UniProtKB/TrEMBL annotation:
This is DUF481 domain-containing protein. Residues 1-27 form the signal peptide. Keywords: Signal. It comes from Pontibacter silvestris.
Length: 279
């Protein structure tokens, strides 16, 4: 009996550790298709909020404990008028290490974005999008990224056997500020006019299960290196409704940049699990 109890404890510990790892990974790809809904009515507001909080300590000595605190907020809101739609997407992840009332608070990783998008004449086969975004990813050294631009959005499939497919192409201006790795107070900046393109797909598998994916390709000519900077990113997610407005979500995101502004990992990815409340 004691051996069975130990095995159960080990299994639970591994499961919780895996879930904690998946919760903390993030690559910050904005999947706009997740927030578009299928309704024939107009003039309504919808949204969802997710919040995750964790705190734990791992003792590195009697007088030198390692304390961790993490807070993750995910909040999206959308308004759909008769002809247009308006999306506001927000994500913040803040991690503190050695967080105690008597010790210095050291932020080792904070990431987040706020994305605003308008889809004009959303029901037409060819519609128009305007967007703006503010983003930071201090874990990778990205102090600030701001961008704004416009898309032409073309309907490939709409609600054909519960499947939607769209293609978008447009232009944007991107401003970035990166901190040089292992060098304090050295910031490199970049301002580029970029071509930005995406293909998105959304499928409702049954009444409770839905999946959606989006792939971006963005490129712009950088005079500082006399070549194009290319970025490919993607996001795929699966949502399972378990009870009324409560949904379980899992997803995979990745980003590849062939010419990063500072020497950082060119390919990054993340796997996430979470819970969302729809309203």
């Amino acid at each position: 009996m004691a051996e069975n109890t130990r095995l159960k404890l080990i299994f639970c510990t591994l499961l919780l550790s895996l879930f904690s790892f998946l919760q903390k990974a993030n690559a910050q790809i904005v999947n706009i298709e997740e927030e578009r809904v299928k309704r024939d009515s107009s003039n309504y507001l919808t949204g969802k909020i997710g919040l995750d909080f964790s705190m734990y300590n791992q003792n590195a000595g009697e007088n030198n404990p390692n304390n961790y605190l993490q807070l993750t907020f995910d909040g999206d809101i959308a308004y759909f008028s008769k002809q247009h739609s308006y999306l506001l997407l927000n994500y913040v992840n803040y991690l503190l290490v050695n967080y105690t009332s008597s010790s210095q608070r050291n932020a080792v990783a904070s990431t987040g974005y706020s994305h605003l998008r308008t889809n004009l004449f959303r029901k037409r086969k060819l519609s128009y999008e305007l967007f703006a975004q503010v983003q930071a990813d201090k874990a990778r050294g990205l102090e600030l990224r701001t961008l704004g631009g416009a898309y032409l959005r073309l309907e490939i499939l709409r609600n054909k056997e519960n499947v939607d497919v769209f293609f978008g192409t447009g232009l944007m201006h991107e401003h970035e500020e990166w901190e040089m790795p292992e060098e304090e107070d050295i910031i490199r900046t970049s301002d580029l006019l970029k071509s930005t393109n995406y293909v998105s797909a959304k499928a409702k598998l049954n009444e409770n299960v839905e999946t959606n994916a989006i792939v971006y390709y963005q490129t712009g000519y950088a005079e500082s290196i006399d070549k194009f900077r290319n970025r490919v990113s993607g996001d795929i997610s699966l949502s399972v409704k378990v009870y009324k407005s409560l949904t379980l979500k899992t997803g995979f995101t990745c980003v590849y940049e062939d010419e990063p502004i500072v020497p950082v990992t060119r390919f990054v990815y993340s796997i996430t699990n979470g819970v969302a409340v729809q309203f």
